[in-house]
Each structure stands twice: as structure tokens, then as C-alpha cells.
Design goal:
It contains five helices and six strands; from the N terminus they run H-H-H-H-E-E-E-E-E-E-H. It has about 220 residues and is an alpha+beta fold.
């Protein structure tokens, strides 16, 4: 303690008057626990309610509750339920405006059972967006589908499903993107079969001169 700059002030044994503030708080806690026990409450519940009331009550010196001093905000109590929340109307308008801005560039997707689609494949490299061919077999929610991929049944959101425009069952199509924003891209942006032609590397035609080292000239 001395190394950290902490200095203890000890009182005399058997003389609680030397630490009156702490003794007073102990008496307040004991009184609150006794009242709670008389009402048939459990120790953990009674202590939690007392501490919550104590920490949410403004102090007579600071006029601010201990919780507000610590958290920089007021705790929500049952008394707050007596007052209507004036922020509900403005919050609703704000949420509606956010929704309109978010849905401005969205496109409605229409799928039906037995559609041949491409679904997100999370089995391999998570840093790449990979798609696997599948068939829709059942709708299990407003935006969720059951997709049959080979002999397995996957669950995918509509944002993880793309329409397949060719009939051949290609196993995998990889789009090199590293973020989840690829789910919101246009359907026609990346679904073309991978090019199988190998690229020919172009070598430099620059004439290289031999290197003259100083040690060779000595």
C-alpha cells in the first residue's frame, strides 16, 4: 500500500464512534434488511432492491444520485413509468426515416418452391464469398428458406440467396469479396461461370546488362 501511495487511518479497537459514517451506513443497511425480512423477502432480493433505491436516490449534498455520478445517466425506475415518454413520437418518426433511407436502394426478391438458386456457402474460407447451387424446398419464415444442397438441407435468409440463370449444376462459384456487403449487391453483378482459360504471363522484353562489381575490377 505504501508503494502505491495508500495511507491507512486506523481507529481504536472497540471504539466505533471513531468511524461514525461507516457505522451509520451499516445501521441503515441492517434496518432495510429487517424491513424486507418482515415482508417475507429473500436476502438477495431485499439487498438488491435496497442497493438499487440507494444508488438511484439523489444525494442531499450533490443533488445527484450515486448511479448518475458513476454512469453519467439516470437509472430507470418504476416512477418513470408514471410519466409518458415524450420521446416515443419522435423516436417513431426517426425510425421510419431510417427505414426509408435504408430501403431506398433495396430490391424485392421473389422466390418460390423448386427454384434453382445460388446460396451462400460458409464451409470454406470465410474471407471469400462463396456460392453453391441448390434448390428451394420450403419457406420457413417471412425471409427464411430451406434449401436442398446435394443431400443436405440448409437454412438461408433471402439476402443469402441469388437466382440461378443457367440449368447446369455447377458446384461452386467464388466471388472474391471480403465483406458481408456482398449480400446487398445486384443479382446480375457477379454470377457468371468462372473463366477456365489460363492467362499467359507476359515477360518483360527489356535488355538486361550484366552487373559490374567493384571486387571484380580490382
Amino acid at each position: 500500500c505504501a508503494r502505491n501511495g495508500i495511507r491507512h487511518i486506523c481507529t481504536s479497537p472497540g471504539h466505533p464512534q471513531s468511524n461514525g459514517q461507516a457505522e451509520r451506513y451499516v445501521d441503515i443497511v441492517k434496518t432495510a434488511l429487517k424491513k424486507g425480512f418482515h415482508k417475507g423477502g429473500k436476502l438477495a432480493d431485499v439487498l438488491s432492491k435496497f442497493l438499487f433505491c440507494h444508488r438511484s436516490t439523489p444525494h442531499s449534498t450533490t443533488n445527484i444520485s450515486p448511479a448518475e455520478l458513476f454512469l453519467k445517466r439516470r437509472l430507470r425506475t418504476v416512477l418513470d413509468l408514471l410519466h409518458p415518454n415524450a420521446m416515443d413520437a419522435s423516436s417513431s418518426v426517426t425510425r421510419q426515416r431510417y427505414k426509408l433511407n435504408f430501403d431506398r436502394h433495396s430490391k424485392q426478391r421473389h422466390f418460390k418452391i423448386d427454384d434453382k438458386v445460388l446460396v451462400r456457402d460458409f464451409r470454406k474460407n470465410p474471407r471469400e464469398v462463396e456460392w453453391t447451387s441448390g434448390v428451394l424446398i420450403n419457406r420457413i419464415g417471412s425471409r427464411l428458406w430451406s434449401v436442398k444442397v446435394r443431400e443436405q438441407i440448409w437454412r438461408r435468409h433471402e439476402n443469402q440467396i441469388r437466382q440461378r440463370y443457367w440449368s447446369t449444376d455447377d458446384d461452386l462459384i467464388v466471388t472474391h469479396k471480403t465483406t458481408e456487403s456482398a449480400d446487398c449487391d445486384d443479382d446480375s453483378s457477379s454470377f457468371s461461370p468462372p473463366d477456365q482459360q489460363s492467362k499467359v504471363l507476359r515477360r518483360s522484353s527489356r535488355t538486361r546488362k550484366p552487373v559490374h562489381r567493384l571486387i571484380e575490377q580490382i
